[in-house]
Amino acid sequence: MTTDRLLKVMVTSHRIALIPGDGIGQEVLPPACAVLDAVGGRHGIEFAYDSFDWSCERYVAKGAMMPDDGLDQIRHHDAILLGAVGWPGVPDHISLWGLLIPIRRQFRQYVNRRPITILEGVPGPLADARNVDFVVVRENVEGEYSEIGGRLNRGFPDEMAVQEAVFTRPGVERILDYAFTLAGQRRGNLVSATKSNGIVHTMPFWDELTAEQAIHHPGVNWRQEHIDALVAKIVLHPEDFDVIVGSNLFGDILSDLAAAVAGGIGIAPAANLNPEREYPSMFEPVHGSAPDIAGQGIANPLGAIWSASMMLDHLGHPEAAREVFDSFAHVLATTSARTRDLGGTASTEEFTAQVLDTIGGARLPAGTGTVRSS
Fold it and tell me: Model's pTM, two decimal places?
């Protein structure tokens, strides 16, 4: 068999659903795709992309963030890569509940995984922070972000609102099992975020299930911390943490706080995982759509590129994923290429070109600053 024929046989193909969304989401996905294609060429991986115009712009035009059969359109893709959603004039609860939450819940993406690492060359708010490398594991589909509740007596002096938190045994057990297992694969330390001294039903339930799960993971050292004390400790001693697990609300807050400690949410990635792989998982930078800088070519693509690296790992290509991570880490550590949010002057395209040069791939073609939706 010829070498060319052998390479064709060995190529692995993946179909990726792209949801650029709004604002800079449309500007950071092309760099991520360019990096995927570059590293894929080195590792025998091919990517096919289907782009969807689901966004606040679509909501304004058609009254819905995505079509009624949207989830069916992407159900059989290997993964989903999201840019960002949100735009002035469209309330955040519409963009969230009209797109992101349906995807997370219908595709059982019950793990939100957020790596927190201080990269060499990235300025952060803590002058002496170093050796920071931990993961926030957030329960992603139930907990405090529930649809159960309502409003009463609207417009009257006794107007009220009720919001119910939902913690199920299967839902809590599976996120705790994931977090304990991850800690066992890392440095063997886990912290559970709680507030059982003030929240008298759901948090004691969470604590009880944490203790039960710990029995199945005897190699992991664990403790629980009240959320208010925990956020202070992350700021004071971020290097002390390995894996932190929290409910939907606590995990959401902790992950953004931790990302700020590492240099800002502009560089932070996230994975919304269906660990059983029955449905596609979704990967996204955690920055917003940033309307104030959209269209200027200055958005930081690092969060999207890092998210693409996490997607590679989930798809079974850990070596390629590590190469992407090492490439942008090398650029930050050895060059002056920085976008404005990191104190530099590089454009989105210029920073991406540096990463591609490090990988050995082609530069991002001129004029590909946005993903065009079909």
Answer: 0.91
